[in-house]
Design brief:
The chain is an alpha+beta fold. It contains 4 helices and 3 strands, in the order αβααββα.
């Protein structure tokens, strides 16, 4: 778990599908579905052969873009 914490603290870290899912607090399967259905065009990924990776900085940007700010 300390290794994941170190990864999550590094904005330039490259996370695999399992690590990215843990960071986003979704299942790896959910992340697979989002990617295969192109559900979020603002969630870029890296594909090397059959392996998929995400830059942590892209995940952070994705989370910021998903933030809902309602004006009252």
């Amino acid at each position: 778990m300390n290794e994941l914490k170190k990864l999550f603290d590094d904005a330039n870290a490259r996370l695999d599908n399992r690590e990215a899912a843990a960071y986003l607090k979704v299942s790896p399967n959910t992340l697979d579905v989002w990617r295969s259905e192109k559900r979020f065009s603002n969630l870029p990924y890296i594909k090397i052969g059959s392996r998929v990776f995400y830059w942590k900085r892209d995940l952070d940007a994705f989370l910021l873009e998903q933030t809902v700010r309602e004006v009252v």
